[in-house]
């Protein structure tokens, strides 16, 4: 089932707090060099504390996001499997009838099942989230080690100092690259979820329309209901708002997934009674 809303709300609050804390940490870092010596020492002492809290919140937020993606992708796969099996079974059942109208409905359902199975291909729902989790932990580990090296007393040996600076620069490059790949994987996962929901919704709409030729179907369930969000626009908004928009995006997708589950249950119930 879709992720419970209280959990998503808690994740949204943690994410918003984390982003605000990151901005605060950056502002403190930029302002520190301009402060007088007596206040500069206080800033220097508080900045690592802010960075530590920000790292903890970022880790928690990212890990929970990875978990949510896995749960939602598993739910999409489950809904798809149930619908494809039910549509195929009902199509075979109706095709055995000599009634021409039922045979026509059977053909439409068979096509809907094939299109849905081809449109939602997800061999391993947790494969993408696990990849994102590995990338996240790698980026966090590199960042923590960079912070550890930066707080050490500078080596007296110039050669050792150069080696330390080179190691910090290398780890920084690795951390930035891995973090960027992690962001790409997460945005792709969110975009694919939106696309999958649209494909499921399209298959359910055609199935409801076909069933309306045999039984009474409520008007409210007919037509397209989901998958109308522009993934390209949402990606752009996520980037320009420093991930603030991602909080809304996942909240909205989780709501769409809950609606999709309810609609799928209605279709399965109708198929069992036809």
Features:
7 helices; 274 residues; mainly alpha
- State the major sheet: none
Structural class: mainly alpha
Percentage of β-strand residues: under 5%
Write down the domain tally. Answer: 1
Q: What is the alpha-carbon Rg in Å?
A: 26 Å
Summarize the structure.
Helix content is 82%, strand content 0%. With 274 residues, the protein is mainly alpha-helical.
Walk me through the structure:
The chain has one domain. The model is unreliable at 32-46 (pLDDT under 50). The protein is mostly helical. Helix 2 (37-95) runs parallel beside helix 5 and helix 3 (100-119) packs antiparallel against helix 5 (158-211). It contains seven helices and no strands. The radius of gyration is 26 Å and the shape is elongated. The two termini are 26 Å apart. It has helices spanning 5-31, 37-95, 100-119, 127-150, 158-211, 231-240, 244-273.
């Amino acid at each position: 089932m879709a992720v419970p809303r209280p959990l998503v709300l808690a994740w949204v609050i943690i994410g918003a707090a984390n982003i605000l804390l990151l901005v605060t940490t950056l502002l403190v870092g930029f302002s520190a060099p301009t402060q007088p010596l007596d206040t500069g020492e206080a800033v220097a002492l508080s900045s690592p504390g802010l960075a530590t809290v920000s790292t903890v919140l970022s880790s928690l937020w990212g890990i929970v996001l990875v978990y949510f993606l896995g749960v939602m992708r598993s739910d999409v796969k489950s809904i798809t499997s149930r619908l494809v099996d039910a549509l195929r079974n009902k199509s075979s059942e109706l095709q055995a009838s000599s009634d021409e109208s039922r045979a026509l409905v059977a053909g439409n359902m068979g096509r809907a099942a094939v299109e849905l199975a081809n449109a939602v291909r997800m061999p391993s729902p947790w494969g993408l989230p696990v990849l994102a989790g590995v990338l996240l932990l790698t980026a966090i580990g590199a960042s923590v080690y960079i912070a550890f090296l930066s707080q050490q007393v500078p080596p007296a040996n110039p050669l050792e100092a150069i080696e330390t600076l080179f190691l910090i620069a290398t780890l920084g490059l690795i951390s930035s690259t891995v973090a960027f790949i992690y962001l790409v994987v997460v945005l792709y996962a969110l975009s694919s979820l939106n696309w999958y929901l649209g494909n499921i919704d399209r298959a359910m709409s055609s199935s409801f329309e076909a069933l309306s030729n045999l039984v009474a179907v409520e008007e409210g369930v007919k037509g397209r209901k989901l998958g109308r969000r522009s993934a390209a626009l949402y990606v752009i908004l996520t980037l320009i708002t420093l991930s603030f928009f991602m909080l809304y995006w996942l909240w909205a997708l989780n709501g769409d997934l809950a609606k999709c589950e309810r609609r799928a249950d209605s279709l399965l119930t109708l198929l069992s009674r036809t």
